[in-house]
Design a protein that fits this description.
There is one protein chain. This protein is mainly α. Among the domains are: about 100 residues, Orthogonal Bundle (434 Repressor (Amino-terminal Domain)); about 70 residues, no CATH class. Helix content is about 75%, strand content about 0%. The protein is built from 21 helices and no strands. The longest helix has about 30 residues.
């Protein structure tokens, strides 16, 4: 793909009597970058494509001769590799995806990539908003509005129910499950929203009487969630343990029980379940257990252990093919932050241990 583009770029540039240096100056890149494009050693960032298109009077599709599938894969890689997109890159990707979706309105992948693109932008804007919310709180800590904004931005606990309920999700998944009642995992999304919003009787009725849900490996996990929401922690623990015991070789009950142990403040038990998740999960492996354990060890003020988990996460990413980009950079930032905190901690760690 890069080689085809490089040949076309070299031909177009030659036809217009333009040097690599002139094209580079027009695009704001180095001549070496243009040289790499023309030899097929690299491809330009998506954000540069409109400028290249204008320079040669050719459409992006004409320049690249890419299929829609290749364009979608390219945008997906861009979102994986980049923490933030500049306005030009975002606009280029948006225009590209909207064009594909206009031609192929039934393309679920094009719609998904657009959703991911907007989510990516919202994460960028959220990070900026959090900084300003914290600044407002620092200046006027007694003002409620700053705390309310920060709680919404970081999905914190508390705040007004009008801001924290997920009834829109409930209504959406009720409708979805009427359309695809045999989609077992869809019931999971509905049940978790029902339980989280306190619609416990509706959730219990589904788990106990829907044959599709009864066969789910997590059925007793949800019954335990209902018991916990009703204030019966003992019954919840019994049902969660039964769920794990009924599928000892399945990673999912361990993963879901771990999250519930965190919610109960039983961090040691949660860590053991996350470790079991790592042992039992099939390929390709999930990174979540390492992230969760790093967060818990940091909360327990065991910074060396937290660093170990972040480093294990980074090794796994490299094993599955991530050598650079935001996936690696994000972990590196966390490791650097933890190492800095460790250097400032007398003795290197606290005596707190998982319970």
């Amino acid at each position: 793909m890069n080689l085809e583009f490089g040949r076309k770029l070299r031909t177009l540039r030659g036809a217009r009597g333009m040097t690599q240096e002139q094209l580079a100056g027009r695009l704001g890149v180095s001549p070496q970058a243009v040289s790499k494009w023309e030899t097929g050693a690299a491809a330009p960032d998506i954000g540069l494509l409109p400028g290249i298109s204008v320079a040669f009077g050719a459409t992006i599709d004409e320049l690249f001769c890419l299929s829609d599938a290749e364009h979608l894969a390219r945008v997906g890689q861009l979102l994986t590799d980049s923490r933030d997109l500049d306005a030009q890159t975002f606009s280029s990707a948006e225009t590209l995806l909207q064009g594909i979706l206009a031609r192929c309105p039934d393309s679920a992948l094009a719609a998904l990539r657009l959703a991911e693109l907007y989510e990516h932008r919202s994460e960028t804007l959220t990070r900026q908003a959090v900084l300003y919310a914290k600044q407002a709180i620092r200046i006027a800590p007694e003002e409620k509005s700053g705390h309310s904004v920060l709680t919404r931005l970081l999905r914190g606990h508390g705040g007004d129910w009008t801001q924290t309920n997920t009834l829109e999700m409930v209504r959406y998944y009720r409708g979805l499950m009427k359309r695809v009642p045999d989609y077992q995992e869809g019931w999971r999304w509905l049940l978790e929203q029902l339980i989280g919003n306190g619609s416990l009787e509706e959730a219990r009725e589904i788990v106990e009487n829907n044959p599709v849900v009864r066969r789910h490996v997590l059925a007793k996990m949800w019954l335990g969630d209902i018991a916990y929401a009703r204030g019966d922690g003992t019954e919840a623990l019994r049902l969660w343990d039964e769920c794990v015991g009924s599928a000892p070789d399945d990673w999912r009950p361990r993963a879901f029980r771990a999250d519930r142990m965190v919610a109960m403040g039983r961090y040691g038990e949660a860590i053991r379940d996350y470790e079991a998740w790592l042992e039992k999960q099939p390929a390709p492996p999930y990174c979540d257990p390492y992230i969760c354990m790093a967060l818990l060890y940091e909360e327990l003020r065991d910074l060396p252990k937290a660093i170990e988990q972040r480093e294990a996460h980074r090794r796994l990413l490299r094993e599955i093919g991530f050598e650079q980009g935001e996936a690696i950079d994000g972990v590196d930032r966390e490791i650097a932050r933890l190492q800095s905190a460790l250097a400032e901690t007398p003795g290197g760690k606290s005596t707190d241990q998982p319970t």
